[in-house]
Structures are given as C-alpha cells and as structure tokens.
Amino acid sequence: MAFLFIYLVLLYIAPQLWVEPFVGFRPDLYLYAAWFGWVILSGRAVELVRFRPQDVFFAGWVAWILISIAVNGFTPNSATIVSDYVKWFLLYRLTVVTLPTFGHVRRAVLLLLLFGLVLAVEGIQHMHSSTGLGWAGQGFGWVGEEAREAGYEGRTRWINIFDGPGVFCVVYTIALPFAMQYLAKPFSVGIRMTGLLMVAPLLVATYYTGSRGGILATIGIMGLYVLARTRVSLGKLVFVAGLLVVTLAIAPSYFTSTADSSRSAQHRIEMWAEGVEMVRYNPVFGIGKGNFLSYTSKLIAHNSAIEIMGETGAPGLFLWLGIIYMGYKTLLAGYRKSEDLRVQSYIVAIGLSIAGYLLSSMFVTLEYETFYFLLAISAAVGNTLQVSPRFAWRDLWLLGGTMMSFFIAVKLVAILYPS
Fold it and tell me: Which of 54, 83, 214, 389 fits a 20 to 30 Å CA distance from 370?
C-alpha cells in the first residue's frame, strides 16, 4: 500500500510542482521502477501477466491506439500519447496486483476519499483566501458573465492534471460516493454522522469550482445513490427523476442554460457533431489519437467517449467501453458473492465513483490516469473471486448495442440542438 500512497500523493498533491526542493524532480519515474521491482521480488510476476477479460480489453485498447496513430501518420505528440497509455496500463496492472484482498481494496478507496477531502479543504480555503491564491500559488479559473451573475467571482482549480475547474471537480466527484456510503446502514449512527461531515465539504468544494458538468454529475451521483440504496421501483424512479427536475429548476440559470453568451454549450455540440463526422468518414481507424483539435481547428470534444470515437474509430470505442463494461461486471460478481453488507457497500461506492467520472466526462474530456486507477480498483475486486467474469456472446451484443445507441443519440443531439 505504500506505493499506492506515494503514487496518490504525487498525483493529487503533486509536491514536485510546487514544494521546494522537489520542484522539477521526476519521482514518478523512480516510483514505477521501484513498484515494478517490488512486484517481481515479492513473487507476483506471474500475476502481473495473468490477464482477465478486462485486462485484455485494456491491452487491446493500447494496441489499437498505436495502430490508429500508425495508419493516420505520426505527429510530434504521438510518442507522448503512446507512452502515457503504456504507463497507465502498467499503473493499472501494478494496482491490481497490489490489491490481492478486499481489505486492500477498501484501504485504496479510503485513500481516494482522504485526498479528496484534503483538496476540498484546499478549494474552500482558496475561495476565501484574501490573496485569491491557493496552496500552490494558483489563481482562480476563468469566469464567464453568466457565472458572475450566479455569484462566482472566481472558480477554484488546482495544479497538475487538475489545473482547470472542470477537471478539479472530478477529484470531489470521485470521492463523494465513498463518503456517501457511510450515510446509511450497515454503518453505525456515529459513522453516519462522520460521513455527513465528510460529504459537506466535498459538496461545498464542488460548488466553488463552478463546473456545470461537475455539479450536474454530482446530482446524478446522488440520484444513483438513492436507487442503489433502495429497491428500484417505478415510484422511486419517478421520485429521483422529480428530484433532479426540481434541483435543475431552482438552480441558477448558469448551470442549466443552453445558450450562454460565450456559446460554451453550443461549441460543445458543434464538436460532438465533428466527432460524428470523423467516425462516419473514418469508421475503422478514426483520425488518430490526439488529432481532434488539429482536425477541428477550434476545440477538443469536451466529451471523452466522442473524442475516443472520433480519434480511434468504432473499434477503439468498443475496446474502451469494454474496459468499463467488464469493470462493472466484475463489481456485480463481487457484490453477489459477498454476504458482508459493508463489503457490498464499498462495491456499490466504487461503481458510483466510476459512474460519476463517466458523467463528468460527458462535459469535458477526462482521459487521465485517475480513470484507469478507478478501473484498476474495480478489476482488483476480481481478485476475491474464484472464477473471473467472462466476456460472452451476450456481452458482445450488449456492448455493440450500447455503442450503436450512443452514436445515434449523439447524432440526434447534434442535429436537433438549437444553433
């Protein structure tokens, strides 16, 4: 677990970017080497290369990225893109091997909660700082006219991969389900109160980012939490839908407007339409990973799935969705196997955390290592199973149907959305 802790410190706190004398130092290079060496010396080398279906999808996804780039032609950024995904795949496998029991999985998600709370404190302090600067000396993010009218004089952000309000909000989106799980049974009243004390700063810090996508994703997580904690029925579905409608109705127009002065929403839809065009003319290989911006000459997709679809084609989207699909299938198998209510609660929280990340990725491209770390935790739940879930023909049809439905939905939105 020491390697996981150090990794998350470097990712979340990132002292190598702002704390002397670590500035400019690349500790991640040494961390991966030491982590890999530890796995070998501890006799887990065989486990490192023992792939389950989820791992095969990930390996195939990395290979397809390289193929797509090769077909479309290498660019100055190609080497960086490929090395990033190879590194993330190594991180994914090292994490799975490092979490052999559910006790290890539980400690890993608690670390995510811990760092989410630490940065929630940072975000709150930043908003109320007399200097307007955060812990790392970073200022506020960009604020549009609608955001100012909604009461935002600044939008909090952090550093490293979290240097924008939207991606910073993902820190809280990831952590929130792990705090919310303590609000109900099987946890004691004391733990529920503690859970409430953890949820509160995460929600406040989320609001301070001013991220519309992040706040809408948070509302979505809350709705999914209610459904996950109760038996799903028509009445409860209607209740959750009504709650979402009421929340959106009373929310400031900044969060719900589809026609802001900066045309942020409109530009996103335009980029979604561009993504559809890419896959229509290049259905197999796409336009090559990392080429979305150069293709549009305006913006990236601001939607992870659309960007992946446009850049790597239908096979790339299939492989990427396959990693997520098998992650959820593993979580479901782990949930059904366990009779421990606490274990089930943690598994549900992992599923909600991944769902929150996916909801956020609908509004901003979030292809970062944080996502693959979450998927590694879902894969590690499979370590507790005697037989890992298989990818069957039924899964192939479900995944293919999901892809087709997604493509049609994006195309319809692009056509029907008012310009």
Answer: 389
